[in-house]
Automatic annotation (TrEMBL), chains B, D:
Residues 1-233 form the ABC transporter domain. This is Molybdate transport system ATP-binding protein. The keyword Transport applies. SMART domains: AAA (SM00382).
TrEMBL record, chains C, E:
GO terms for cellular component: plasma membrane. The chain crosses the membrane at residues 20-39, 51-72, 84-106, 136-160, 199-222. Part of the binding-protein-dependent transport system for molybdenum; probably responsible for the translocation of the substrate across the membrane. This is Molybdenum transport system permease. It comes from the Bacteria. Belongs to the binding-protein-dependent transport system permease family. CysTW subfamily. InterPro entries: MetI-like (IPR000515), MetI-like_sf (IPR035906), ModB_ABC (IPR011867). Keywords: Cell inner membrane, Cell membrane, Membrane, Molybdenum, Transmembrane, Transmembrane helix, Transport. Its main location: membrane. It comes from Poseidonocella sedimentorum. PANTHER family: MOLYBDENUM TRANSPORT SYSTEM PERMEASE PROTEIN MODB. Pfam families: BPD_transp_1 (PF00528). One of its GO terms (molecular function) is molybdate ion transmembrane transporter activity.
Length: 234, 367, 232, 367, 232
């Protein structure tokens, strides 16, 4: 039987690996569809043939829950994440709160700060630090976190704030400072069965996602366990 | 079969207000450049919807602004040879020729089609496209296309203007046959005297959008008053005669009230009525009957009127046994010969200047 | 070559081709009709029709996709009507991807065809009418063949657009492997993953090769067509 | 000023291989539809690059396949009136007319331009666009456009075919003046006898892509062998005379070796040399000197040769005081009058049939 | 009205207009040149040029944006060259947005103009040459005016595309309020947030109104142009 998963695009590598193993072990077929969380949520609301929704933030899951498009009782957080400040070859910085020291005349790439989760969290953190107004003119917003990473990796922009999981996968950048999780709302990846999910296999795969086998793969790609996350070491 | 037409239309700077009846035969629209000939033809074809008009072909009303009736061009069955050939550039000559055939309720037979293609000299061009044709070739294809669509009325807007004399001489007899056999009315725009005198049964003279004169071609052309408008070289008169016999030396002899008339052989049976045209330009006058002269036609005439023009010539109207004749001679000769109304003299006409002119008869000139 | 692209990628290429071909072929008849109407007729609402045709060009593709989803989704009015009448659903199907691609390419197609129809000399159509040909026949034998360069151009533009269309497609029919994952959607997914640029690049090359092939064919066709009209 | 040309070119199914020299004056290209006239003109204009060709205008080589030389059309300064008018549809008549002026190294003055516009009757059309012109109006604009560009050589491809006689009669004298005054060579394609006889100094007869005959128009037209090719109605001869005096009654008298010749008044000073054309069709023969006849020109002649055609006519070549004359009469008359080489008789020519024909002289017919 | 859209949205509208206008105006000369070359010349590499022009249509917009970034970014070869030669940088500037829009609209523009140039009767150009006019003058006074319908069409297509372009723009120049946040970027941002559809809709309406206005003007111009050529 086939299980259709609608997942946020940034989960592609890890989820592909988990699903392939699962398919090999369990003989089920996992059909993965990747796109932005917002797009997927709207499509599920319009009756898309998804069994599992795996979002990159809670807002769209809340939205679907309110519409009754998911089975609320199956909702859970699968992984969490943290943000890091990245650069191509700058040294580690001592104090995030002194942007004039590390940013200089460079720009800072982040995802859309009012719309895309990675951007929303980054803005929250910078606001908590009290430096948002100072940094804002230098901020370059992209349509998703991955594009911000690419900007830094290609050298088009000096600094960026991206997910730790993304930064780890891109060899051309390094994390020069962690962003303490306390500075922004928790970054969670919730998953749930959709209201139209019929397959029993769907529930099984959803459970597998929060199980230890998947956990190991997520870890390897830089994702953290769900729940209160420990602040990463700088 | 006849065409009745009255049309009013205004273009910026040009007003057309014309009406005439085109009986069976060929009606030639004649008039200066810009006098409205093409505009009228377009109205008849259904391509221009004028401000006000009434057009009917043998009783069927094609267009009547009073009643709002308007038969679309496609349902008029009127063949149209355009002033510009307007061939379909993406179709071969053959496809151009046969384009209209499938819509004709009375399609031409293969033999007839083949004859038209041959007459127009298109046999070798059938696979070409219009882009690879010379100007005259294009025009011939356009004529063929209109003929092959089997129309009940044919409009031709200067169809022969870009053809050489030899080709014209081949096509003209065919148009004559069409006129005489198929009894298809033809509305024909032309600037050429030769075509007018060979083809026209009716002549409509247009002048700045109005009909200056319309009527049987003989009347219009032999009206000395119209000579300046027609061009003096075009004026002439018509004699009616009966074919007496065909001579062995290639001449046909007519008996007419004006006397015996010889002309190049004509394909009409003895006894048939024939009209011949004699251009004023080609008539000599002599005080006495000349002897030993190469002209075979010497007619005894009486001067009816003398009309003085601007130049050195005068137009003399003559009575020849009840028929009218026109002669254009110099003022000097007129004076020398004492040409004045009432004077009797002789009109000399070269045999080879007499043009046969057939109306409603199976008569055409031998080539 | 199969080693170079994975089976999923080949699937995406095949799907993109199918979507682009159907989108082009199916939008040609309405495209020609609308182009003719815009070029030759006067009717009330002409400006509105013209505007409507151009909408997909003006709007961000995502918005077009969103509107399509609202209309043809399970809850949308047209979606419900189609479902009720024929038991058909096109959202999240490759047919929906073809519809999205067709709509995105429609303004390009209509504009090119309209331009060519406007360039056909109406006096030739008039000449055909005097030969007794009904309007529709004149259209089919004179207007259409003479507008062929524009129709070819319109088709190739629509095809190329369909090969590259992403925003409206992913929004309307999502990115389901084997069903709606076209090449651009696959490229997008790869671009979301750090380090997968190589895979994305391979797909980019494939779509360039395919589209260039289509371009080449259309150029050769166009050359032959125009040689035909110019004579010889 | 002269044009030398030799050109070879193959189209699918048509091979052109022609060469001739067009001296000063008007060279008429004459030949059936599809014989290659337009093709030659296009080569001269620089619009068609033929397989092989050498074209030079007064010594300047415009095109030579041997050396690879090819002067582009824009730098040839050759005016071209196309068989189809080819007006610029988006420009007004005025803009069409003045299009070439800015590039002319010797632009026409305002007065001269105005005169051309007036002669062509374009004054009222200047603000129109070509789409709103009649066929003849378009052609007149095309002529004006070529003239106003101040060319050093003029190519005209059946420029007057779509014009009415009156308009032709207005334009022809202008072309004559152009030929005579501006000493601009003209290469002129025409099917019309009237134009050929009025304008041509040189005649090039094309037949299926080859030059059948080329030479001074008098020689070509008075060659009885060419009569069938030219069409019998076109055959005729030329007499050279000296203007003796202008009479009050609108006649001009010439003295010629053949005798005194009267013709409609010509604008040439007494003493000027003049050529007149007498069509074979217009000549009568008489055994005795006729008296009291309206024709003023009676010439004593001797028969040189008689050529029998297919029809009822014969072509008689005559000697008139050393000049050649052609007469076309019926076989019957020829026999009746005993026309045979050596026979002396009289040729009668109507005054009004004598057409003045000026070469390199400031002579034109009064309208 | 200012109450209906916030100042940031007005800024986006103004910016989109500026970007679209410049993109259209600046791509017209090269567009006409390339279209002419493709229509009338034969040269080696013609097929390649044709393919290159069509690339932005074939590729997903994000890929085009990405390629632009690689070329014109701070580290890109063209970006560095521009910086060194003129001290100009276009990445993350509105000028970059205009470039992206121009490139995305280029295939549409070139195709339309090419179609119109191909429809101009070369015999008219030949006639102009016999009047002594040099090639460039013939082009400017005969070819160009007769191809005007296609140039207008090309311009309006490019303008409309520029108003709607999102993928390449956001990838190349990002989304900086007041500098590179065009209307489509703003709409996209609204669509990412649950419940912000209303705000997105307002911007959609604004861009429709602007583009319809442009369409209307172009239609009226085109009508006048073709009336001119048809006569009267
Ligand atoms: N592009 C072409 N391809 C093939 N054949 C051609 C092409 N152009 C002309 N021809 C042929 O060459 C011959 C000469 O053509 P041309 O136009 O020179 O004739 P023409 O003497 O001007 O005739 P007309 O008096 O009818 O205008 C014709 O038989 C014509 O069909
Ligand atoms: N579309 C138009 N708009 C304005 N005026 C026009 C239009 N079409 C024709 N005319 C004018 O109407 C008059 C009559 O034109 P028409 O074409 O009927 O002339 P014609 O008698 O056929 O002349 P020709 O012998 O030169 O072909 C001309 O003065 C012409 O300029
Ligand atoms: O209109 Mo797009 O930005 O080519 O999908
Ligand atoms: Mg006309
Ligand atoms: Mg020709």
């Amino acid at each position: 039987e086939t299980v259709t998963v609608f997942a946020a695009a940034s989960l592609k590598t890890a989820l592909d690996e988990i699903a392939e193993r699962y398919e090999a072990e369990e003989g089920a077929r996992i059909l993965r569809t990747y796109a932005g969380s917002s797009v997927l949520a709207r499509q599920i609301a319009q009756g898309a043939p998804a069994d599992i929704y795996l979002a990159a933030n809670s807002a769209w899951m809340d939205h679907l829950e309110a519409k009754g498009a998911i089975r609320a009782e199956t909702r859970r957080d699968v992984v969490s994440n943290t943000l890091v400040l990245i650069a191509r070859e700058a040294p580690d910085i001592p104090d995030l709160g002194q942007p004039e020291a590390w940013l200089g005349a460079e720009r800072l790439a982040v995802a859309l700060v009012d719309a895309v989760p990675a951007g929303i969290y980054a803005k929250a953190a910078l606001t908590s630090l009290g430096i948002w107004d100072e940094v804002a003119p230098a901020v370059v917003q992209t349509d998703n976190a991955r594009a911000a990473l690419a900007l830094v990796a290609s050298g088009a922009v000096g600094f960026g704030i991206v997910y730790a999981s993304d930064a780890r996968a891109e060899p051309r950048v390094r994390a020069i400072h962690g962003i303490p999780a306390a500075l922004h709302p928790p970054i969670r990846y919730p998953a749930a069965l959709t209201a139209r999910a019929r397959a029993d296999g769907a529930a099984a795969f959803l459970d597998h996602l929060s199980g230890p086998g998947a956990r190991a793969v997520f870890d390897r790609w830089g994702f953290l366990p769900p729940g209160p996350a420990a602040p990463p070491a700088p | 079969m006849s065409l009745d037409l009255s049309v009013q239309h205004r273009f910026d700077g040009f007003a057309l207000d014309a009406g005439f009846t085109a009986p069976e035969g060929v009606t030639v629209l004649f008039g200066r450049s810009g006098s409205g000939k093409t505009t009228i033809v377009n109205v008849v074809a259904g391509l221009l919807r004028p401000d006000r008009a009434r057009v009917s072909v043998c009783g069927e009303v094609l267009c009547d602004s009073a009643s709002g009736r308007w038969v679309p061009a496609a349902r008029r069955r009127i063949g149209y040879v355009f002033q510009d050939a307007r061939l379909f550039p993406h179709l071969s000559v053959r496809q151009n020729l046969t384009y209209g055939q499938r819509f004709s309720p009375a399609p031409l037979g293969t033999a007839q089609s083949a004859r038209i293609v041959e007459m127009l000299g298109l046999g070798a061009l059938l696979t070409r496209r219009p882009g690879a044709l010379s100007g005259g070739e294009k025009q011939r294809v356009a004529i063929g296309r209109a003929l092959l669509s089997g129309p009940r009325l044919l409009l031709m807007d200067e169809p022969l203007a870009s053809l050489d004399e030899a080709r014209k001489a081949e096509i003209l007899p065919y148009l004559e046959r069409l006129r005489d056999e198929a009894q298809m009315p033809l509305l024909y725009v032309s600037h050429s005297t030769a075509e007018v005198t060979r083809l026209a049964t009716t002549l409509v003279l247009l002048h700045e959008g109005r009909v200056a004169r319309a009527g049987p071609v003989a009347d219009v052309l032999s009206d000395p008053e119209l000579a300046p408008m027609l061009g003096v070289r075009r004026a002439g008169a018509f004699l009616t005669g009966r074919v007496a016999r065909h001579h062995e030396d290639g001449l046909t002899e007519l008996t007419s009230p004006a006397g015996a008339i010889f002309l190049p052989r004509v394909a009409a049976a003895p006894g048939a009525t024939l009209r011949v045209r004699i251009a004023a330009q080609d008539v000599l006058l002599a005080a006495a009957h000349p002897s030993e002269i190469s002209a075979l036609n010497v007619l005894s005439v009486e001067v009816l009127a003398v009309r003085q023009g601007d130049g050195p010539g005068v137009m003399v109207q003559l009575d020849a046994g009840g028929e009218r004749l026109l002669a254009r001679i110099t003022r000097r000769s007129a004076e020398a010969l004492g040409i004045a109304p009432g004077r009797r003299c002789y009109a000399i006409v070269k045999t080879l200047s007499v043009a046969p002119f057939a109306i409603g008869e199976n008569a055409t000139a031998d080539p | 070559m199969t080693g170079w692209l994975g089976p999923e990628e080949w699937q995406a290429v095949a799907l993109s081709l199918r979507v682009a071909l159907w989108a082009t072929v199916l939008s040609l008849p309405p495209g020609i009709f609308v182009a003719y109407a815009l070029a030759r007729w006067r009717f009330p609402g002409k400006l509105w029709l013209n505007g409507l045709v151009h909408l997909p060009l003006i709007l961000p593709p995502v918005v077009t996709g969103y509107l399509l989803l609202m209309l043809f989704g399970a809850q949308g009015p047209l979606g419900r009507a189609l479902e009720a009448a024929f038991g058909i659903s096109i959202a999240f199907r490759w047919t929906g991807a073809a519809l999205a691609a067709a709509i995105m390419g429609f303004p390009l197609m209509v504009r090119a065809i309209r331009l060519s129809i406007e360039a056909v000399d109406p006096r030739l159509e008039a000449a055909a009418e005097t030969l007794g040909a009904p309007r529709l026949w004149v259209f089919a034998t004179i207007t259409l063949p003479l507008a062929l360069p524009g129709i070819l151009t319109g088709a190739i533009l629509a095809f190329a657009k369909a090969m590259g269309e992403f925003g409206a497609t992913i929004t309307f029919v999502s990115n389901i492997p084997g069903q709606t994952r076209t090449v651009p959607s696959a490229i997008y997914a790869f671009l979301q993953v750090p380090g997968a640029e190589g895979a994305a690049l391979r797909l980019v090359i494939v779509s360039i090769v395919v589209a260039m092939g289509a371009l080449l064919v259309s150029e050769l066709l166009a050359r032959r067509v125009s040689a035909r009209v110019r004579g010889s």
